[in-house]
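# nightly structure sweep
# worker-07 picked up a monomer target from the shared queue
# config: single-sequence mode, recycle default, output format = structure tokens
# input follows
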Amino acid sequence: MPRFFFHFRQLSDLTIDDCGCEFSSAEDAYLSAFRAAQEMWHELLIERQDPRCCSFEVADGEGNTLFVVPFTEVLDSCTRKSDRNPRRYAHLLHAALSNHQHAQRLRGEVSAELNIARSILAESIGLLAQLSKLE
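# output follows
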């Protein structure tokens, strides 16, 4: 199962999650982050801290940020009756993750092509050097 890391941001302070949690999908990780934000909202208010300044930055095992769950989503879900179910964001999250994976794949392909181009360039420079010695 993939491991997700829930880094906690409060204004400019970032607390890194070194352990992470395993979830069967990114959607499950999102729902867990949303529930944790709901639970932390009350505690932050008791501590006289503004939860609207907080978020979870959820990353994969390679350290790539997959998505951000701002605590304001908790407030938004309370103010609009139709928004009370965080699953409504699941399709957006799924699309974003799909785009992220596609971008990662393309990045790998571009990197491979750049390596080939560098190799050809190095070979061309070597051949030109040999040619200039012959002249």
